[in-house]
Amino acid sequence: MCDAKYERQYTNTKRGGTTAEPKTEPNIQAGKAIRQAMGIPVSWRGFNWTVCHIWGIDDPAFQQSNVIVRDPCYYSCVGNLVLLPTPLKALTDSVPEIKHMLRVCAYHLYGWLPDIPGAHDLAERVELVRSGQVFPDYPDSWPRKFGEKLPPGTLRYNSNIEEAIQKRKREIKLRLESTSYPMYPRDSVKKVLEFWRIEV
Q1: Long-range contacts formed by 61-67: CB under 8 A, 24+ apart
Q2: Residue 12's beta-bridge partner residues?
Q3: Confidence band (pLDDT; 50, 70, 90) for 1?
Q4: Residue 28's pLDDT is what?
Q5: Contacts of 90 (CB under 8 A, 6+ apart)
Q6: Are 5 and 184 in contact (CB under 8 A)?
Q7: Average pLDDT over residues 147-159
Q8: Contact 200, 169 (CB under 8 A)
Q9: Distance CA 155, CA 139 (A)
């Protein structure tokens, strides 16, 4: 996590410690991505709403590093994000049935599934989603195949979203080409653009 000009990296020092560690980005950029995809202004600060990742390492003890969320290609991928009322955010981390239903809905909505070689237990869960298996409580109003229907409340693609996409592309292009922003992660950003076949 860096300042706006990518000149200084933020750090944290654990309580009682003396070593400063790089500060981890706390879903701020992921939140901006999903709000822009929904046509919500980036400046919106809705209280009691939290951005959550749908795909992550399923570890009830929360001991494993979350290589899916930490992968730059998936961190701000809209197909891997959901905006939830904050009191419900733990459901995406701790209730397997909720996670599976969100993953199935997202798959049929976006046609996307993660693929990270060596990610613990990921391939099995991806195949479960791809198989179309759903729990009895899976909402009838959610899609069960790609393109079938949009979940209630889904915002259709519009000019505001297109404008947000173009603005974001211009920002990325500026930072990639500028000699300023010394700590901007250019190599990582280029990798993500290539992965998603995006031209800026």
Answers
A1: 62/93, 64/120, 67/116, 67/118, 67/119
A2: 21
A3: confident
A4: 82
A5: none
A6: no
A7: 87
A8: yes
A9: 18
